Amino acid sequence: MEKKNIDWANLGFGYIQTGKRYVSNFKNGAWDDGVLTEEATVTLNESAGVLQYAQTIFEGLKAYTTQDNHIVLFRPELNAERMEASAKRLEMPPFPQDRFIEAVVLTVRANAAFVPPYGSGAALYIRPYLFGTNPVIGVKPADEYQFRVFVTPVGPYFKGKARPLSLRVSDFDRAAPNGTGHIKAGLNYAMSLHALMAAHHEGYDENLYLDAATRTKVEETGGANIIFVTKDRRVITPKSKSILPSVTRRSLLYVAKEYLGLETEEREIAFEEVQDFAECGLCGTAAVISPVGKIVNHGEEVCFPSGMDKMGAITQQLYDTLTGIQMGRLEAPKGWLKIVE
Ligand SMILES: *Cc1c(COP(=O)(O)O)cnc(C)c1O
Predict the structure, then answer these.
(1) Same domain, 132 and 262
(2) Is there a single domain that holds both residue 178 and residue 316?
(3) Nearest C-alpha to atom 12 of ligand 1 is from which residue?
(4) Is 294 within a domain?
(5) Does ligand 1 have an atom closer than 6 angstroms to the CB of 224?
(6) How far is the CA of 59 from the centre of ligand 1 (A)?
(7) Backbone angles phi, psi at 265, to 5 degrees
């Protein structure tokens, strides 16, 4: 199969329209058969539920070309499961999990020419999403929905070497204790944009959110979970009901334990403890791990010993091991890679 003529190594993280996308509609209480279409534009009634009351959820995962030239998905069943949880929380009909995976596979196969080649550092980003389509004006869930999957090639997150990020502790909250922080809903992002722009304006890359109830415990950033490495080489990550259950974070903890022989812990982490940690990283599908060099809390700086010009040593090992698994250079745990082609 002929690949598209794209400068893979210099792709950014942006939308590029690809060939086909998957669409299925929910009407009269049932999902239709679903089709692949070339139509990239969505036309909706002016009062569609998604437009008025933000009934929309999404997922994000990637397809990679492995060393032996297969196109693979990384643990897509975890995205299927998480999307079902998101749908239920927003009173939307879940798209069945087996059909979710089938739709992702069909869409990736149909766009195989856009899957970046092995060694380019780039990948195919996959965006499944689900939203309310029929007119709604009184506050209630929509009755009709659309599930779509599109794909777009994205470049290597780090061009050259990874640059450690600086975070600030936000005065805004991301998620209420019993709110929607644990689901992947557009609404969580809409309300984070102001805080994000304010952080950028002050020269920070991202906001670190503390728990909204006590403002003492570390939660996550706007779009990534956080992990720390202690000085005695334990890998720890916050436990909270209002954190999004990142597939990358869950995989990294497994890799830390089973591949690198490190102790791992998922527990409440007081912000006060952070000054004692050796390394810090943000994890998510986009970058796998972005190292964090510094966290600033109202003028008070916490600088990690790993510094501002490279990843910490253990962060680097975690990164190399997980990306090695994803690219087929290291043996994957059973069931982690789904071969598409
Ligand atoms: C998507 C997302 C993540 C990362 O999850 P992955 O499954 O690892 O991509 C982390 N935090 C938030 C708030 C997210 O929306």
Answers:
(1) no
(2) yes
(3) 223
(4) yes
(5) yes
(6) 9
(7) -145, 135
What's the mean pLDDT in 268-291?
Answer: 96
Residue 331, domain member (yes or no): no
Tell which wins on pLDDT, 121 or 207. 207
**CB-based contact 310:158 (threshold 8 Å):** no
Q: Are residues 136 and 281 in the same domain?
A: no
Q: Are 204 and 197 in contact (CB under 8 A)?
A: no
- Which of the listed residues 113, 133, 154 is the one where a domain comes to its end? 154
Pocket test for ligand 1, best of 57, 86, 246 (most atoms within 8 A of CB): 246
Q: What is the mean pLDDT of residues 108-125?
A: 96
Beta carbons of 106 and 22 less than 8 angstroms apart = yes
Do residue 186 and residue 278 come from a single domain? yes
- Confirm or reject: Cβ of 225 under 6 Å from ligand 1: yes
**Nearest protein Cα to ligand 1, atom 4:** 284
Q: Is residue 224 domain-shared with residue 302, that is, in the same domain?
A: yes
In a domain, 3, yes or no: no
pLDDT per position as a tens digit, 189-209: 999 999 999 999 999 999 999
Q: Which domain holds residue 228?
A: 165-326
Question: Is residue 157 predicted with pLDDT exceeding 90?
Answer: no
Per-residue pLDDT tens over the stretch 78-104: 999 999 999 999 999 999 999 999 999
Which token pair is 69? 């030239």
Tokens encoding 4: 């598209």
Test site for ligand 1: of 77, 219, 244, most ligand atoms within 8 A of the Cβ: 244
Q: How many domains does the chain have?
A: 2
Catalytic residues: 184
In the chain the beta strands, taken as DSSP E runs, fall at 21-27, 30-31, 35-37, 56-58, 61-65, 71-74, 123-132, 145-154, 165-169, 206-208, 225-229, 235-238, 264-267, 279-284, 288-297, 300-303, 337-339
Give the pLDDT confidence of 228-279 residue by residue, as tens digits.
999 999 999 999 999 999 999 999 999 999 999 999 999 999 999 999 999 9
Single residue among 154, 176, 191 that ends a domain in this structure: 154
What residue's CA is closest to ligand 1, atom 5? 246
